[in-house]
Amino acid sequence: MKTLLKAEHITQRFGGLVAVSDVSMEVGEHQIVGIIGPNGAGKTTFFNIITGLYTPTEGRVLFNDRDITGLKPYKVTDLGLARTFQNIRLFGDMTALENTMVGMHTRTGTTVLDAIFRTKKHHEEEKQCEEKAKEYLHQTGLYEYRYWLAKSLPYGLQRRLEIARAMASRPQILLLDEPAAGMNEQETADLMGFIEELQGMGYTITLIEHDMKLVMNVCEDIYVLDHGELIAHGAPSSIQSNPRVIEAYLGKEA
Ligand SMILES: Nc1ncnc2c1ncn2[C@@H]1O[C@H](COP(=O)(O)OP(=O)(O)OP(=O)(O)O)[C@@H](O)[C@H]1O
Ligand SMILES: [Mg+2]
User: Fold this and answer.
1) Measured CA distances, 161 to 17, 94, 111, 138, 192 (Å)
2) Sign for the pseudo-dihedral over CA of 26, 29, 33, 39
3) Superfamily the domain 1-80+171-254 falls into
4) For the chain, domain boundaries
5) pLDDT tens digits for range 105-151
6) What is the pTM of this model?
7) Distance 228 CA to ligand 1 centre (A)
8) Nearest ligand (C-alpha, residue 42)
9) Rounded to whole angstroms, how far apart are CA atoms 32 and 243?
10) Atom of ligand 1 lying closest to residue 178 CA
11) How far is CA 221 from the centre of its chain?
């Protein structure tokens, strides 16, 4: 299996706080990999480093063997990594279709001038964008909602729309930050099936999630963070019975 994404010895300090401490991770092509851990473990920070929002204090990020450490987020997106956010970041007053088209922006060949003067080229590309966006909405089960404002969609569908928008940048890998957050049991079950469909479409997926049922069912490989440190890594069965993992979760509850 080809390694698509590799994080090497990543450390992220914020002043005196070590949010991520010497974490390494590998994601193979077409894998579904999970990152779990209690609140504040450093999961989102790790995603932020991979996607260029932060330049790590130490360590490197490699994508397709290319060093992408510290590249600007839009460059990282251009190279084929797309993400969703833990706190939904849709344009509430735009339709599902428009939100998806926003995700395609970096892929069009039109210039600002083409847009200002509404050239024929611009018009044709808009049309193509729209057709393509409809395809992503279809794939995410949102086609019938294409003209709904994002803010009027049920929560579970907003989370799906975030994924549709991420797909619109034509990524190789999708990084999903708590895709099931706020979903009811049925929505979560649907999402599980959908994530497996995404894998079937050829996507590689890395997801952060608190819903253990989802993680244990769809991820073939799991990384566990606690207080910024990687405390376990392996198949779901080994993670479930790992004493350090159990302690990290129980310790937080106490
Ligand atoms: N930009 C920042 N500046 C300072 N501290 C930060 C910053 N981003 C995150 N942190 C801190 O780093 C630690 C890890 O936060 P992070 O959001 O990565 O955790 P998480 O594992 O995603 O948690 P959750 O499950 O609650 O989403 C926390 O203590 C957080 O307060
Ligand atoms: Mg988080």
Assistant:
1) 34, 12, 26, 11, 15
2) positive
3) P-loop containing nucleotide triphosphate hydrolases (3.40.50.300)
4) 1-80+171-254, 90-168
5) 655 566 666 667 777 777 888 888 899 999 999 999 999 999 999 99
6) 0.92
7) 9
8) 1
9) 24
10) 27
11) 16
